[in-house]
Amino acid sequence: MGAAFNVLRGVETTARWRSIFGTDAQRDKPTKPYRQVGVVFTCVQRKADALARMDLRVSTPDDEVIESGPLVTIGECPNPAMTWRGFIRATSAYLDLFGRCAWRVVAPVGPSPLVEVWTLMPARLSAERDDRSGELLGWTYRHAGGREERLTVEEVHYFNDPDFEGGDELSGLAPRVAVAMAIEQYFKSDLANLSSLDNGVEPGGALRVPGELSEAQ
User: Fold this and answer.
1) How far is CA 140 from CA 1, 121, 171, in A?
2) Is the C or the N end of the chain the one with fewer CB within 10 Å?
3) How confident is the model at residue 21 (pLDDT cuts 50, 70, 90)?
4) Do 70 and 114 touch, CB atoms closer than 8 A?
5) Least trusted range by pLDDT, from 16-25, 61-70, 97-106, 144-153
């Protein structure tokens, strides 16, 4: 689930340029800015890395530090596939890229007393609501292989940066949406520079006239 945070990499090489950016008609805007725009990748990664370097401290509402116990154990190792640092990196990246994040809380299985907490890919998580009241009834999560799984309200801890102007309080507002125009400018600049380099930085044509031009001409 959340361990997939690091599978994405930076700006692709020239050899794979067309397979990523598509035809001319599809290159107006980046469809996957985290992969296609180096500035987006760098900002998301650096923020996530900075948060992950912070020491974990578990405390009560009165700021009394808890040094041991189930909460500390979950904090240090939220699930068998992730450490605290990997978990917080994924959470930070999802908030920056989607404006929302969700944790799945898995109850203890068998003799194990430990609860597991997993990050969920926001784009694969959809809310199920009552048609009349709009009440949240649960969630549907689509796994990477296409399998869909129904999750209860209690199983999902959902949080976001709300943008109520959009109408849905669960949508969230990602930073990349607010700066979409700047991201698009970076993207188009990269494409123009790459095209120029592929052309050997040669002009596309030249204008020739007979004789010599006057100052007025």
Assistant:
1) 14, 12, 15
2) C
3) very low
4) yes
5) 16-25
